[in-house]
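Worked Example 4.2. Consider the chain below.
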Amino acid sequence: MPEMQSSSLPILESTIICPACGTASREVMPTDACLYFYECAGCKTLLRPKPGDCCVFCSYGSAPCPPVQQCCGGNTPQTTAAWSFCSLTRDAFADRMAEIDGLVDRFAGQVQATDEGVVLIFAAQDGLRAVLDALIVKERQCCDALTLTVEEGGGRTTLRISAPAADRDAVRALAARAAGRSP
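Applying the procedure from the previous section yields the following C-alpha cells:
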C-alpha cells in the first residue's frame, strides 16, 4: 500500500511496480496533475489506474500522487476520499467510482469532460433515469459542491456533473480516468 509522508510537503518520487512483469521504476510525480497512463519500461504494458484511483501512482506506486497527498491532509489514502469536494472515505469513494463505472458499462454510456466538469451520455433506455436519479441522491449526500442534472431528449439521456472552478480539475481527472479505463 502506498505510504504517506508525515510532514506537509508531498513526496515527489514514487516507485511504480508493473503488475504484469514486476519491473520497478523510480519516477518523479507531477505536483499539479494525475498521470493516467504509464508504459512499463520492462514489458511495454500500458498501465491505467485501478477503479477508484485517480492515477497510476495511486494504483501501482510506492507513494500516492501529490494531489492525493495534499487533499488527504496527511491521512492514508485508504481512510480519506481522494478529492476535497467529496466526504466519502477512500474505500466508499472507490465503491462509488466502481458503481459509476458499472452504470456506464451497463447502459453503454460515454464519458466526456466539459468546461464545467463532466457529462455521461447514454442512449435513452428503460430504467436508466431511475438509476441516474438514485445516483444523484447519493452524490448530493457526499459531494454537495457538485451540481448534478439529468437531461433527456433527442433519443439520449445525459447526466451533467458541474463543479465549482476550484474543483473542476479534479472532476475532469475523474472523467479522464473513467474514459481511459476501457480498452
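Residues 90-106 form the longest helix (17 residues). Helices lie at 56-60, 66-71, 90-106, 128-142, 168-180. Compare this with Example 4.1 before moving on.
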